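Exercise (ungraded).
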Amino acid sequence: MSPASDEARPPARNLDRERLTAHLDTMWRIRAFEEAALRGLSEGLVRGAIHPSIGQEAVAAAVCLNLARSDLILSTHRGHGHTLAKGADARAMMRELLGRAGGTCGGKGGSMHIADFSVGMLGANGVVGANIPIAVGAAHAVALRGGPEIVACFFGDGAINRGPFLEGLNWAKIFRLPVLFVCEDNAWSATTRTADLTAGEGAAARARSLGIPAQILDGNDAIGLDAAARDAIAAVRAGEGPRLLHVRTYRMTGHTAADAAGYRDAAEVEAWRARDPIARLAAALAEAGVDPARLEASRTEAAAEMADVLDDARAAPWPDLAAAFADVQDVGDPAERAY
Amino acid sequence: MATTTYLAASTRALAEEMERDPSVWALGEDLGRGGVFGQYKGLQARFGAARIADTPISEACIMGAAVGAAMAGTRPVVEMRFSDFALCATDELVNQAAKARFMFGGQATVPLVARQPIGMWRSSAAQHSQSLEAWYAHVPGLVVVAPATPADNLGLLKSAIRADDPVVYLEHKDLWAAEGDVPDGEHLVPLGVADVARAGRDVTIVTWSAMRRTSLAATETLAGEGVEAEVIDLRTLWPWDRDAVLASVERTGRLLVVHEAVTVAGFGAEIAAFVAEHLHHRLRAPVRRLGAPRIPIAYAPPLENAARVTPDAIAAAARAMLAPAAARAS
């Protein structure tokens, strides 16, 4: 039951340095985006709740960078990383977090409903586990038309205690749908330890009980995750039916940015900080001979990019008021009659 | 023109739309065997098990999968079996289907039809008899349809399938066997347009679903007393045809709203309030609502009947509205 470990890995010199440096770039961009968003929050620019994924960046990078642009993903309330890694425009994303015109959703969704259909990102979701049936349905549509796409569905460890988890996994299995389920297990269901709330062995065991192949992985090991995600995605794309990756990682912040997470043991947090997925990947790449200047540029360029992104969003206008009445429905359009 | 049943009209509507548009498919429990009421009979043999999909008893996943499949380019027709069971899929319908287009800034539409058979039917008791149309009318993003005749079930279901919005489609279980004339060729009924089921000058009865039939029965009694009631079948509850209702009440000066659902906070309250706001000066009698008492629907027939609106009750309410003001007060 132990997560795949560093020992199982090929020697550093055999690493695909170019590929993994690109993963590092994506991970730094996710972290820099969220750090910029937190600055925006402290300035009062981000208006609602945001749920940072700092510490979980390797999962988003490993899964999304192994997908094709035409593949689809469904995300969670903690979805900035997935969205960015799938290829969404950071500028439009930050505008969305600030509720501005030019946001991915025109400022109407905010962080919890961020979506970019142009890159196959069919939406974050404010309801835990609700994205699972939606992902399964998107895969069902793909299967009906015989398309080559697959669907990746991210959810947290808390979601496996909701009914839609069982309904969705069962559905994907019986219809043999091309879905990769990714349980990002950050150990906390909002502000309560998931282990205290969960019977049995967790996501992988529940998937296996339905005949869905599942792996338990170290979610802070970007290299191992990349290999596992690539293999799982290939199997799903080959028509072998759904798979599940149970990825053990850690949420370095509280549930929301406003949550100081004082309920957690400081030693636990420090132990996970020492296993920071970005630092680990950077160290492995340095050991494999990647130029230290290149590794440093990965960090500084991401920080500079996201500082610009926040400045752009800060300067962007509010949406036109008409947007509040737009895109509700065609029949009974409230733009014509809302009362 | 041919005579057919409300049930067969719905089968024909789905078959015609599936023939016309390969992206239309249906999903729900027992559909391959025809569905619980037989409204899907023959469709799996004709269109295959992929497009008439038998699903697990997983209402949340049926509705949620339909949301995903709709956003990914298909037009799913969801069968919920009984509207009561659709409550297991409330998040999927209310939080997901109804809001996706808006939340995502118009990047996606959710063209699904959620068929939810409603109403009292053969002592089915409290969890198989409800009419919850008012809940859905309250939710921005949803269209709510409740056909009352075979021709309307044909024409409205076809329009619902073609709509780009999520449509809550409420067929009444007690109407499956109802017969009526249905046009032979292509027959579409526009969403949001009422039907004047009977013209009359004295009182306007606004109703929908099975209460169309009950109201029409009441008008026979009233006609024998010299009272000519107009019956407006809304057919679509959101958006409802306010122009048709206002035009009628302007002529008759009297509005009686009749529905099978609980009166309290029922959709009749919306209609009554709207008419009072717009036509107060033209009303010759206070607006009346007639619906069920706020009790769960019981099993035993005499108790079930305590929740049932009858032709006699409708006639009595209309009669009272036509009585001189002094008599009404007493």
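Further reading is listed at the end of the chapter. For now, observe: Chain B has two domains: 2-182, 195-329. Residues 6-20 of chain B form the longest helix (15 residues).
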